[in-house]
Amino acid sequence: MIIAEHQAGSNMANKSGVPGSIRAQVFRRDGFRCQRCGIQGFEFRGDQHVSYPTGDAGNFLSIDHITPKSKGGALADPRNLRTLCTSCNSKKGTTVVAEFDVK
Ligand SMILES: [Zn+2]
Question: Per the confidence metrics, is the pTM higher than 0.85?
Answer without folding.
Answer: no
